[in-house]
Design brief:
One of its GO terms (molecular function) is magnesium ion binding. Belongs to the isocitrate and isopropylmalate dehydrogenases family. Its EC number is 1.1.1.83. The chain is α/β, with parallel strands linked by helices. The protein folds into two domains: 195 residues, Isopropylmalate Dehydrogenase; 130 residues, Isopropylmalate Dehydrogenase, CATH 3.40.718.10. The protein is 41% helix and 19% strand. The protein has a ten-stranded mixed β-sheet with strand order 2-1-3-12-11-4-5-10-8-9, with helices on both faces. Strands 6-7 form a two-stranded antiparallel sheet. α5 packs across α6 and α10 packs across α11. The structure holds adenosine-5'-triphosphate and magnesium ion (MG).
Length: 351
Amino acid sequence: MKTLKIANIPGDGVGKEVVPEAVRVLHTIADLHGGLKFEFTEFPWSCDYYLKYGQMMPEDGLKQLQHFDGIFLGAVGNLNLVPDHVSLWGLLIKIRREFQQVINIRPAKRLKGIASPLTNPKDFDLIVVRENSEGEYSEVGGRIYQGEDQISIQNAVFSRKGTERAMRYAFELASKRKAKVTSATKSNGIVHSMPFWDEVFQDVAKSYPHIETDSQHIDALAAFFVTNPSRFDVIVASNLFGDILTDIGAAIMGSIGVAPAANINVNGKYPSMFEPVHGSAPDIVGKGIANPIGQIWTAKMMLDHFGEQELGSHLLEVIEQVTESGIITPDVGGRATTSEVTDQIISHLKK
Ligand code: ATP
Ligand code: MG
């Protein structure tokens, strides 16, 4: 029996509504499979927790999480009561940093039955691998002079290790998919870091001769996400470029409520964290209409991560059978509730 110990952090708002739904789905999959078991331990760390105890998680929170196989997170944030920098830095960013989750991955795929805002929405099925620890989001820089002479300097940091790590991850992932990696670059305008990025990409590509490669400037690449996303399989991008591309990726799927994500620890020292793209959605909380697909698809990414790709692929097929059948929540134009969508997914899994 393969047992996966997962730390659940439902967090705030609709996170508390969709995490239990995804947990139901994972237990169903494990029961049907027989050789797999999930052991969930729930942690109430959230903005509510902060309002009670003055911190987002206890002092030894990271220690408590460290020995889990994975962290399954809902959403964190309650802007009315806790400023974003407190809720994010006190929990999410702390976990990402301390657990060296140096890569962020976000798939974008057209789901049957969900309207895409694209004018010519052909099928697409891509995944963005974003370097998540350095690049343009560095703290190196500062300001000098005052008034009209004032200058601000922001340096980007690209290490050979960090860059190569992201690229290897992308190539490995592409090996299990359609065997194509596109690199997001801008070496015609950014003259130090991006030519370096291109060099590392070419070096890493040499170890993967069976993978087709392509390099696109970020401006053109962003446009292709809108005009022809079906040309992509895996895209590897720096922190800033990946941030932008993944938002476009979520947008072309039709709702942020269906978009999944994972923060990956690649050295195996700490758990990876799986969380949907959406936030706590305070405007719909308590109404029972939150789309559970983002969280359930995130569970699929967790299955993939733990080597259960077959189960993961099947779950995504089932999600799509359900969206195609029209049992969808209001954010994507339907009338179903959160639990109705989950019930359907579960009953299709049992077929
Ligand atoms: P936070 O501060 O937690 O990031 P936010 O309001 O900034 O919250 P989201 O929570 O992602 O950002 O909400 C953005 C919009 O998307 C809202 O209108 C929300 O209702 C909608 N939304 C987010 N998640 C879902 C979901 N799972 N199902 C349906 N709609 C959603
Ligand atoms: Mg937000």
